[in-house]
Structures are given as C-alpha cells and as structure tokens.
Predict the 3D structure of the following.
Amino acid sequence: MHSSCSPRDCDRKKYCVLSLQTVLAARELRWKNKKLLAESLAQKFPGHRLALAFCTLRMPASLRISNLYKEIVVQLRDVLAGALMDGAIQILDYGQEEYEDGPSAWLASDCDERILKRMAIAIEEGHALGSLVDIDVTDAKARLISRRDMGYAPRKCLVCDDEAAVCSAGQRHSLSEIEAHIEAIISDSMGQEAWDSHDGHKERD
Amino acid sequence: MRVLKSVTAGSLESSDVLVTIMPLSEDRIEYDIESIVIKQYGRRIRKVTEDMVEIAKITGARIHVQDRGALECTLRARLETAIERSIAC
C-alpha cells in the first residue's frame, strides 16, 4: 500500500506503486486533455470530419510507468497510422504525452469515427502486441465510441479467457502473473512485427 | 446539504468511473447506475453509491454513475470528489 493511501480505503495492495490519488488525477487530466485537444483540432481543421485515437498501455499502473513497455504505445499508434494511410485516409495531426501513470500516443484522422474504431479494434485483436494496449476512439467532440456501440464483444483478459473488465475490477490476478503473460506476449511477437492492414493478418518475417 | 451545481469526477477510461451529479428541484435523490460489469458487481456499486450519498447527507440531486470496471476504492474516491465539488460554493 502506498504511504499516502489510507488503509481503510485501499484495496490495491496487489499492484500498488503509485498512490491511488496519482493514478486518478492522471486519468482525469488525460480525460480533460482529450476534450481540449478535440476542441483545438476542430478549430485548426475546420471542414474535416475529425476522429481521434488514443493509445495507452493496458496493464497495471506499476507496469505502465516502468519504461519497459513505453515504446509500444507509439509503435501501435503508428500501426494504426499505417492502416489509415493504406486506406488513403488523411492523418491531420498526431502526438504523444507522458502522464504520471504512463505513456499515451494519439492521432487525429479525417474519417468517420466508426471506421477508425473498427481499425483500432482490428489492431487490438489482431496485432501481436495488440492485447497490451487500449486504443480509445472518440468523435470530434471527444465522445468515446465503445465496442458495445459497434456490436463487438468485450475484450478478453490478458491472463485468462474471461472478460477483462471483470478480472481487473475484481483484481483476480496477481501482478507477477500478469507480468509473466505480458513478457510471453512480447517474446511471441518477436519476428511477427509485420502487419497487413488489408486483411489484418500477422506475417512472419 | 443541497447540491448546488452540475459536476463530474472521473473519466470513461477503462478501469475508471465517471460520476456526474446534477441538481434537482425537489428534495430527493435519483440514481442512474451503469456498468460494464453490472452483472458481477452491479449490486455492490449501487450499495457503495447509496451509502456514500447517505453519509454525505446531500439531497436534491441526480447521481449518474458510468462505471468502466473501476475498483471499489476508485469508485469511492470518484464519488467523494464529485460530492465535494457539487456542494462547493
């Protein structure tokens, strides 16, 4: 447990390195920044249909800030950028940020947000490292498009086959168990970097 | 204590919860609880929310909880912040 958390409230003992307050403040800041970014892009690119994608690490906070996996968010944001370019969809802007609870990389494209969300899901599900990231997609007003809205099944847990949200909300797996699965995913991904955006298949080099 | 203004706390990121509190003209509390894990944790989320609102003794509000799989400590922290913001002058 982090020293600044009160013992009564804290049930994050398993994963805790950052204080709960730090993680919650970072999430709220990122949420507000998404809105500000969407507003400023709408002004900068009038007449374009804006859709935004935000790539963050999908693992406990202590691993998100560890620097070991930092490049993955940029790498997969760039995979998404490649898929957009293959589809002749314009990328209007892109960037990356470091928050107290981990890295984030984003891009803004000129397309229907549902098309962007579909591409993001294809990467989350099909890319060798896709299970290690969340690619959140919003419309020009920073409204989140959910898998459910699109008729897709919820994401699976990194460790078992259950629904990810159920496992993480219930803290069903230990940090070491999660870490071992992440390492296995990364070592399996070696030599499978190529990504074909047309059929979403991985290719061995 | 009456809720004075519309406020939010949290986000719709995975493992977080967005709590929105809006003032009502009548002296009652309305709850609207949504969760992606409603089947597994819905009852617990409702209980924690109602308990915290009761302890804070606020009234005249609609409490909208949009849960994206938050831990209970996260839900408690977000509710606490939203309640504080809703009664701040």
